[in-house]
Amino acid sequence: MALRAATRRLASHLRAAPLSVGAERWIQSTSSNDAQGHPKPTALPKLKDNFLDGTSSTYLEELEERYRSDPSSVDKTWASFFGSLESGVAPEAVAEAFHAFEQGSKVAPLTAASISNQSIQESMRLLLLVRAYQVNGHFMAQLDPLGIDTRPVPVELDPALYGFHDKDLDREFFLGTWNMSGFMHEDRPIRTLREVLRRLQESYCGPIGFEYMHIPDRDRCNWLRERIETHDKEEYSLQRKMHMLDRLAWSEMFENFLANKFTAAKRFGLEGCETLVPGMKAMIDLSADLGTESICIGMPHRGRLNILANVVRKPMQQIFAEFGGMKPQGDSYYGTGDVKYHLGTSYDRPTVSGKRVHLSLMANPSHLEAVDPVVQGKVRAKQHFSNDTTRDKNLGILLHGDGSFSGQGVVYETLGMQQLPEYGVGGTIHIVVNNQVAFTTDPKKSRSSPYCTDVAKAFNCPVFHVNGDDVEAVVRASEMAAEWRSRWKSDVVIDLVCYRKFGHNEIDEPSFTQPLMYQAIRSHKSALSQYIKQLEEEKIATKEQIQEVTDNVQGFLSHHFETAKEYKQDKRDWLSSYWSGYNSPSQLSRIRNTGVPMEFLKEVGNAITTIPEDIEPHRMVKKVYEQRRQMMETGEGIDWGFAEALAFGTLLSEGNHVRITGQDTERGTFSHRHALIHDQKMGHKYIPLAHVFSGQAAGQFTISNSHLSEYGTLGFELGYALENPNSLVLWEAQFGDFANTAQVIFDQFMSSGEAKWLRQNGLTVLLPHGYDGQGPEHSSARLERFLQMVDENPYKLPPVDESKWFTGGHLGGQIQQINWQIANCTTPANYFHLLRRQIHRQFRKPLVVMSPKALLRSPHAKSPLWEFDDKADDKGIQGVRFKRVIMDEGATDRSFDPPKEDSFKRIVFCSGKVYYDLREERKEQGKEKEVAIVRVEQLAPFPFDLVNRELKRYPNADVMWAQEEPMNMGAYFHIAPRLKTCMASCDRSSPHQIPYAGRPNSASTATGYLGTHKEEQQKVVKDAMNLEHTTY
Ligand SMILES: Cc1ncc(C[n+]2csc(CCOP(=O)(O)OP(=O)(O)O)c2C)c(N)n1
Ligand SMILES: [Mg+2]
């Protein structure tokens, strides 16, 4: 009876969802294959006409009657089918199989039921087992070359958990196949358990452990599953194996060679992970075949020389010469230099298939992972400038250490950029050189999760863990990564599990801290010797052939080592491509004007205040734009936001690229920019600066809010600015205080990059700064820190060529020779010229701007339009440029030795917004003829020449510095020795201490009490104006 009921249920299911009528139906044989190996369809006559239409139920019942009286009287597939129904297969499942068959599944719908004694539950449990391998098989993968990793096998990989035992190994099971990928997609849905397990273990537990089941995208998972589960182990040809051998030989023998020749030198060799080189080379070759033309690589110390020599192909002679201590020659300027394992370079490299790919290795500091965002920024810029909209032509590859990848937060910040519209680079390939130790620290103390790569899973990156001793597996993982990046344009991670043959560096003793590991390492055979053995056993190569390969490498290394002694370095490559025509600090550059003809200004001004009719801005934003339009028309009252927009607009019109990013930069933290207008009805966006002139290229002006990162985003912009000098790249901190989370980028790259690596950079950083009573974390951008890193000698006056005073060229190369510029402007017009100056010069220099908050809306901080134009109206001075010093408002003469103003008793030097408070207090006290207030708009390089001019102007005045910041902060300690130098040079007696009006020394940057703030501010200005009593 049970069978009859089941048959009826099946029949009713089939009726409920009838299959299409008229199509000829076939059931595939799983046994007969055609000549090409494809399964051949076999007609199933008994079902052919009427089983699947409405009458089939009667037929099914008839068939069942016959089966019950004599099982051999029906076709054996039907006998098996009824047998499975008797043993519990659900008729609904069979019906479902029929529907799947109808919808395209190639698998016979009755196959599921034809397997003897198998229950649906078993089939489901088997699927769970398969899934467990897909998810967790990597935990059983053979990843550790040293074999000392004793990871417990996860219980879910044990068939017993699913009720399977030894006796089941040779039973056949049905694995559902419809809509599956990987080996379950093959036309062999029936397998023995033994076969299934073997296949799973080969796929997931070999030398590569795949982690991808965390990726929420089905297509991506299927794409990977296909490659993982249908992989044929013997895929490499003899030729490819020999090629891998050759590359591995270069990698290992290079390390040995250096170790022999430079025994006592630190080089952070790759010993223990030499397969990285053949892996990377295969990755690069395949990427080039897939359309990549340029690759930018970032990496730490480990293996850098090897990558330079064998991957990037920096000439060996040069490497040996530099290792021998050779100094650069040629141009007299070669900076302070850096250790050899930090230097970058770039070369064009031919690939195996005959293409060429440009490889550049970025210079980097010791600070692990700091180069990550820099590389990505550079790649993004390359994509911009090569119009690589699909992001196929330019690729970034980042190498990491296991300790740093899991420990350094900037890794997270950088990974987090991959899908951000203005930061994505179409995926970066990450390779973690996982030598299972970080200096002396064990993985157990390095991270809280099983793998050093786990952070990447938060961003849905696939992770390929690979045994670094298996060169073929490394090459396979590397190629898969290249293919993934090309196909999915997202990040992918290779975890190259290897070991470190020596200590942290070659002269370090590793057994102090890792005795057992190093016992294993000492007796461990290198990857090259293992591969040689494998190739001999596989009869791929004879001993002689292998000898030929190694002799060739050895010969080359020896030859180049010998000739390195005569090696002469070519002209530096630092001003390649877009940078040709830019000057090094030893080549004097002309001072250019930054004013813009009035007509042109107006044209730009009109364009950037025009909002199309179909955009309805917020009422307040509309007002901002109307006011800007009015400023343009009247030529009066240009405010900070509009001055900035005019600088951008004019630079864009001149053909430059402008990119400004930061948290909330589109609107502006203080609601002053509104560069991106949101339509209030439809939500459309409109960027006036993207429409300065007709035909403006998309992206020529880029403005974007960033994710909430400083370290990562600043690094990114720094890298972006490295690419092309014709771009003004700006990064804005939300408040200057927060910029210190990006301190590594300021210290290691921005302030010192040119000196170390001879790479110029015009990155401009806007740091809101100013004491407005907003408490300790919204007041100070820590100006003192930026000044402290200025490499100028405070006691040395730059020579002045008086004959060139009015042209601005009187200072020689002062500004070219400094490491960076620090400015704190007080007028919109001066800010405009400062920004334009960044581009209108023949060199590039980083610029840090203390940008205002209160001044954004202050009625005092406004400039007339004529201050932006190109008509010089300052007495004597030719051209209109940024004013490094703004003299007192009562002074007019700008000559080298201006007429004396004898009545003045004090010169108050200051910088930034405190000027307006000082001016107000002076007015209140009526001391306009007694106290001169001089603004130092450019704090570095210090305007010694102009300060001297002011000292000469007021011969009877004492000199004071006024600031809002506490004494141990702000500019005081930067200014004081410089003022003294100036005073001494003007034959003034130089005081022991420079008088000071400002907040007292303080641990915290500012008070949290508004009342106290106001009192303090009052005291500052009163002290400055108090001629009876001098404060210090
Ligand atoms: C930001 C930073 N912190 C600390 C160091 C000091 N340091 C240099 S190498 C190293 C260990 C790095 O370990 P890992 O990332 O595993 O790379 P490995 O040296 O093992 O290749 C440390 C802590 C550094 N260079 N940078
Ligand atoms: Mg390590």
Automatic annotation (TrEMBL):
Gene Ontology CC: mitochondrial matrix; oxoglutarate dehydrogenase complex
What's the superkingdom here?
Eukaryota
Location in the cell: Mitochondrion matrix
List keywords of the entry alphabetically. Answer: Coiled coil, Magnesium, Metal-binding, Mitochondrion, Oxidoreductase, Thiamine pyrophosphate, Transit peptide, Tricarboxylic acid cycle
Catalyses which reaction(s)? N(6)-[(R)-lipoyl]-L-lysyl-[protein] + 2-oxoglutarate + H(+) = N(6)-[(R)-S(8)-succinyldihydrolipoyl]-L-lysyl-[protein] + CO2
State its cofactor: Mg(2+); thiamine diphosphate
Q: What is its main location?
A: mitochondrion
Which residue intervals make up region (Disordered)? 30-49
One Pfam family per UniProt:
OxoGdeHyase_C
Q: Does the keyword ATP-binding apply?
A: no
Q: List, in alphabetical order, the Gene Ontology terms for molecular function in this entry.
A: metal ion binding; oxoglutarate dehydrogenase (succinyl-transferring) activity; thiamine pyrophosphate binding
Gene Ontology biological process terms in this record: tricarboxylic acid cycle
Q: Which residues form a coiled coil?
A: 525-552
Q: What is its EC number?
A: 1.2.4.2
> Family per UniProt?
Belongs to the alpha-ketoglutarate dehydrogenase family.
Instruction: Give the protein's biological function.
Output: The 2-oxoglutarate dehydrogenase complex catalyzes the overall conversion of 2-oxoglutarate to succinyl-CoA and CO(2). It contains multiple copies of three enzymatic components: 2-oxoglutarate dehydrogenase (E1), dihydrolipoamide succinyltransferase (E2) and lipoamide dehydrogenase (E3).
| Protein name listed in UniProt | 2-oxoglutarate dehydrogenase, mitochondrial
